[in-house]
Design goal:
alpha+beta, Alpha-Beta Plaits, four-stranded antiparallel sheet, 50% helix, 17% strand, rod-shaped
């Protein structure tokens, strides 16, 4: 798997993990709050029933005596959910609340429960029997949420979010490091032959991604082509490999650099253009079939001839050979061989400066089946 595909694969996996963790944190936190709220409703009903029993039995102290009121107030303060209680009797209405003014409004001498966020809409209501009193009732309002519990849930959720952020930062650092090593990813994996050593002397040995001509080093061609072939095979795209070389002309270095710049301008993808020998170039063109690649080659050949005609009106005598993936599972060596063979014929035949190697996919598959070679 190429480094680019590795990075895309890693980023995709991490993105999926982060999304899952975010959703899990949200669902976990929401679920805990919902369960706590439901349990709180059950507890509130129990505490209201206890308060009803207390309001009935404490009447022995004298209904609405100072002692009676203290018992009711203590019951509210000791509960976990009750916010306020209103008791109505023949002597009037009496209000009790955990914090004065928080849940009861007084309209004259009549207390009424407030409505608001976090307060139950429907108060509990019960008739009670108090000796000497008629039509005695008790109401209670309770809080829907345990805010201390919600804070705890938020803290736990925050820890998960921080873990996700930490994971994302680690992946970001890895991605930055991989980008910094992109140049190293294209270092040749084979040793130089004596002939290559003569061509690439110390000043011309690959340093960085691009040569002094502004295009990729020739030794990087195979590895990058292999990477693009795997990518195109995975997405079922075609790919054209083009090689270009002068028939007999000997270009000066500035002319070669100009030709390289024209190639970059025409094909736009600098990282898919490479040196070939001392006077030529290679091009990797994804998403083009052989016919489209042939038309593109003809356009480029005319473009070079029009832009590089010298003062005597002479045009550069360049030849082009190309081959395509054509739906095959083909290795870089094979495609480079086919394009080079086509170029060799173009260099020999003066009437055909551009020759395409056209493969038969069915015969190629039969060749693979018989030989096991790509």
């Amino acid at each position: 798997m190429s480094m680019t595909r590795k990075k895309i694969f890693l980023s995709t996996i991490v993105a999926i993990i982060c999304i899952i963790l975010y959703i899990a944190a949200l669902c976990l936190g929401t679920g805990r709050v919902i369960i706590n709220t439901n349990n709180r409703g059950i507890l509130a009903e129990k505490e209201f029933n206890d308060t009803v029993d207390l309001a009935t039995t404490a009447a022995i102290l004298g209904f609405m005596s100072q002692s009676y009121q203290e018992v009711i107030q203590d019951s509210i303060m000791e509960s976990e959910t009750l916010l306020g209680v209103i008791i109505s009797g023949s002597n009037g209405e009496f209000g009790f609340e955990r914090q004065y003014g928080s849940v009861i409004n007084w309209i004259g001498n009549s207390p009424r429960f407030k409505s608001g966020f976090g307060i139950a809409r429907n108060p509990y209501f019960r008739s009670i029997t108090i000796e000497g009193q008629r039509n005695t009732t008790i109401q209670a309002i309770y809080s829907l949420f345990d805010y201390d519990f919600i804070v705890l849930v938020l803290k736990d959720t925050l820890l998960i979010v921080l873990a996700i952020v930490g994971l994302a930062l680690i992946v970001l650092l890895i991605d930055i490091k991989l980008k910094a090593r992109t140049v190293q990813d294209y270092e040749p994996s084979v040793s130089l032959t004596p002939a290559q050593t003569q061509i690439w002397d110390e000043s011309d040995h690959p340093k960085g991604l691009y040569s002094k001509r502004g295009i990729g080093w020739e030794l990087y061609t195979k590895e990058r082509l292999e990477s693009e072939l795997h990518r195109c095979a995975a997405s079922e795209e075609d790919l054209v490999f083009i090689v270009m070389e002068a028939r007999k002309s000997r270009f000066r270095e500035e002319s070669i650099i100009k030709m390289a710049n024209e190639g970059i301008s025409f094909f736009t993808e600098r990282d898919l253009i490479f040196e070939k020998g001392e006077q030529g170039m290679s091009f990797i063109i994804p998403s083009l079939n052989l016919d489209q690649g042939l038309a593109k080659s003809e356009q480029f050949c005319r473009h070079i001839q029009n832009t590089m005609t010298d003062s005597y009106g002479d045009m550069p005598d360049i030849c082009i050979g190309l081959s395509s993936r054509s739906g095959r599972l083909v290795e870089a060596d094979r495609l480079m061989f086919e394009a080079t063979e086509a170029l060799s014929k173009a260099l020999e035949e003066h009437d055909s400066p551009i020759i395409a190697f056209k493969s038969d996919p069915e015969k190629y598959r039969e060749f693979i089946r018989r030989t096991g070679r790509y």
